[in-house]
Amino acid sequence: MLAKRLIPCLDVKAGRVVKGVSFGNLVDAGDAVGLAMRYDAEGADELAFLDITASIEARGTFLDLLTRVAERVFIPLAAGGGVRSASDVGRLLRAGADKVTINTAAVTRPELLSEAAEQYGSQCIVLAIDAARLSGGGWRVYTHGGSRKTDFDAVEWATRAVSLGAGEILLTSIDADGRQSGYDLELTRSVANAVGVPVIASGGAGSPQDIIDVLTAGGADAALLASLLHFGKVSLAEVKDRMRRAAIPVR
Amino acid sequence: MSALRRSGLYGAVRGYADGGRPLLGICLGMQVLLETGTEGGSEPGLGLLPGEVRRLVAPGRKIPHVGWNSVLYVGPPSPLMAGIPDRSHFYFVHSYGAFPDDPAHWIAATEYGERFAAVIGRGAVWGTQFHPEKSGAAGLALLRNFLRLEGGPAPC
Question: Measured between alpha carbons, how far is A159 from A55 in angstroms, rounded to an integer?
Answer without folding.
Answer: 32
